[in-house]
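quick one, 193 residues, struct below
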Amino acid sequence: MEYTLKTPISDAEIEKLRAGDVVYLEGILFTARDEAHMHLLEHGVEGFDPRGLALYHCGPVMKQVKGEWQAVAAGPTTSARMDSLEARFLEKFGAKVIVGKGSMGSKTRDALVKYKAVFTNFTGGAGALAAKSLPRVKAVHLLKELGMAEAVWVFETDRFGPLIVTMDSHGRSLHDEIDEATRARAEEIKARI
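---
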């Protein structure tokens, strides 16, 4: 199935999604890599409430044009880097859609079920395409403290995607299924050699 989700996203909207679905996002999407996760968990940011929003594992390349920030490239970073922090992040902040690259582990999978959220993948290597879908910067937090790539960029998007739901709020993980199928196939191949 294909869905368009507008932030803030509700639990009911998340529960409709299944692993393998395609999602497009409208509304507010914010970036946070590992340093931003740690800072937000420890200190938060006054006036910034990510509840119901989309979290993007991304360190965008930005430029200023006539005093306005613009994304040059905004491809996903490897999400496994945030895996040890994500369950606490979901509990504390209530983001509903995580956008990243690669897989996340069982702690994140369990947190997605508990806190009604999904993990989605955006195509790696398509940073310029992603930037086109992030036309407006609403705010930037922690730029001086963390630098451009680690800052929390708050974007408004009209249609960000396509995103593939790879871990849903029902406990299904396409990453786990592919790993299991690969292991089984490897054993079959070994047995024939």
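Residues 12 and 116 are 9 Å apart (CA to CA).
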